[in-house]
Design goal:
Elements (H helix, E strand, L loop, with lengths): L2 E4 L14 E4 L2 E7 L14 H18 L7 E8 L5 H12 L5 E6 L9 E8 L3
Parallel strand pairs: 4-5
Antiparallel strand pairs: 1-2, 2-3, 3-6, 4-6
Amino acid sequence: VTMRVIFTDKAPKPVGPYSQAIKASGFLFVSGQLPIDPETGKIVTGDIETQTKIVLNNIANILKAANMDIKDVVAVYVFLSDLKLFSDFNRAYGEFFGDHKPTRVTVEVSRLPKDALLEISVIAYRED
């Protein structure tokens, strides 16, 4: 299996020993993304809808760097700091994905890096 590192400056730079994404045999594995402004490297404060839109936009930019788009996303993993935020998160998520409905796992976690309200990771697929 040939693996290729995907990187774009239109998404936050990795802050540790990992890649934004890895493409392998038509699959794209995107690392967990926080609501970070790629230009400043700072977390975007605001409500869950604002943070969700930032995270999903960063993921869309990573997909684009791999010659993919949101219609190629097959699985989404969502980590919320508080499940009370689920309804507002879900509204922003639904607007982003529209009619495309990949599988999804959503869990509440005790804390996220930089005290973000959420982190999202995706797996996408497009035949090479």
